[in-house]
Amino acid sequence: xxxxxxxxRDIAKELKLSxxxxxxxxxxxYEISGKTKELVTNYAxxxxxxxxxxxxxxxxxxxxSIGIVVSTIDNHFFSQVIDGIESVAxxxxxxxxxxxxxESFDLEVQNVEHLTYRSIDGLLISLSTETKNIxxxxxxxxxxxxxxxxxxxxxxxxxxxxxxxxxxxxxxATDHLLQSxxxxxxxxxxxxxxxxTSERLEGYKKALTDSGITINDDYIKYCPHGGKTTxxxxxxxxxxxxxxxxxxxxxTASDRITTTTLALLHKLHIKIPEDIxxxxxxxxxxxxxxxxxxxxxxxxxFDIGKNAVEMLLSLIQAKRPVEEFETRILPTKLYKRQSTxxxxxxxxxxxxxxxxxxxKKDLK
Length: 364
Hints:
Layout: H1 8-15, H2 19-26, H3 34-46, H4 53-60, E1 65-70, H5 76-89, E2 95-100, H6 105-117, E3 122-125, H7 135-142, E4 147-150, E5 161-164, H8 166-179, E6 185-189, H9 195-210, E7 220-222, H10 230-241, E8 249-252, H11 255-267, E9 277-281, E10 295-298, H12 301-316, E11 327-330, E12 333-335
Parallel strand pairs: 1-2, 1-3, 3-4, 4-5, 5-11, 6-7, 6-8, 8-9, 9-10
Antiparallel strand pairs: 10-12
GO molecular function: DNA-binding transcription factor activity; transcription cis-regulatory region binding
Pfam families: LacI, Peripla_BP_1
Keywords: DNA-binding, Transcription, Transcription regulation
């Protein structure tokens, strides 16, 4: 059964009024008498009349829709960003259309193309891990489409951007591990393409060098697709565990990488933090109830979404061309839990400390 929405023409025919009169009555025009307005609005309400958004957008030159591009909505961080976006967009009369890239560049291009066919008024985007070329965005920006980047951003388009303080988040996390007595600190991070990777690596490295520790490139592992598959995280972890000297702590750089690394360490019967401490960037609400409770760097996802859409609306509603742009950097927060308990207070039985492959584990 097909649902057919009632139109202005239907109302006009039923009430024996002109289409123009009905239209003006629904807009509360001063040209229409109160009696006629009441007649029209009552009929419209009783028959569930809704304005045609496509027709309105053609008339007004706006669709009142905003496109959103993220990697996956099952990522706790991105779901919180979307909540922040919707809280502002809906209050301003805008609908949001959400698309996922699943870390695919090709899908990102397709999604952006689809959104522009829907005549969106502006675009909010966090780039995929595969994205190296943003010509598809440059073309739209040059044609006047308002674009705001968040989280994973690009410097190739001059526009507003909103990010977490990834550098300080990684610095504080690494420094916490150092202060807890860990010295051989590895990191499993995302694709080298994306901005968050370089920002977090910079903070990680600076904390190490500030403590007089030489950077060991063997302790830095990349997940080219941001941990999209368990296999690439497992590969990175296995490479760390194949080293002669194991890391005594691992800093992980995303929701998916963090929680998957925790699960893999459990699968290998590696005790946390007795064998290896774990601290990760994650916005999961379950960090407190994981085993052990997980130390984490929390990003203000909701506030990032709010700031991003507010900046986009300022571009959409601007009366004149905007020539000055801003990059907002929002603070992260470090939560210290049992997964990074001080190495100085741990009791470890060297004789019983065995690597998964049967070799004795190096505790250094």
